[in-house]
Amino acid sequence: MAFEIRFATKDDIENIINITREAFALYKERSGAKSVDALTETYEDVLYDIENKLVFVAIDNNEMVGCVRVEIKDDKNAWLTRFAVKVSSHNSGKKLLARIDKVMAENDVKSISLYTASDVASLMSFYGSCGFVTESTDTSRGYKRVKLLKKYT
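The structure assignment produced for this chain is given below.
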C-alpha cells in the first residue's frame, strides 16, 4: 500500500494523538503560544470527534503520517481543526486538503475556515497556496492568529 486517505476509526486514536502532539508542540514553539489545547487532548476527546465530525487520516506505507478534523455546520460552512502532518511526510498536507475539498463539494459546503498562527510564515504560505485567504486576525489566545477562509461557492 503506497498512500491513502481515509476516515479515522477508534483503532487510529493513539496515532492521531501522537501525530497531533508532535505537530502542535512545533506549532506552539514557532507561534509563541503559551498553551495549545491540542497538546492536552485525551483519548475520549478524539473519540468524540471521530463520532461527531469528519476525521481524516493519511497513511503512507502503512504508517499514519497526517490527520485532520472537519466539522460541517448547519449553515453549510465548515471548520478545519487539528491539522497535523509529520514533518518528514512530503505533500501529505496538500493531499489531505484536496480530499477535504472533494468531500466539501459532495456535501454542498459553501466555505471552510481555520485558525493558524500568523507569524509562522510556512503555515501562511502553505494555506495560501491551497486557496485560503485571511478573513480576520485575533490575539485572544495570547499570540497572533489569523482566521483563514476558503470559499467553495
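Interim note for the steering committee: DSSP finds four helices and seven strands in the chain. The CA atoms of residues 28 and 106 lie 34 Å apart.
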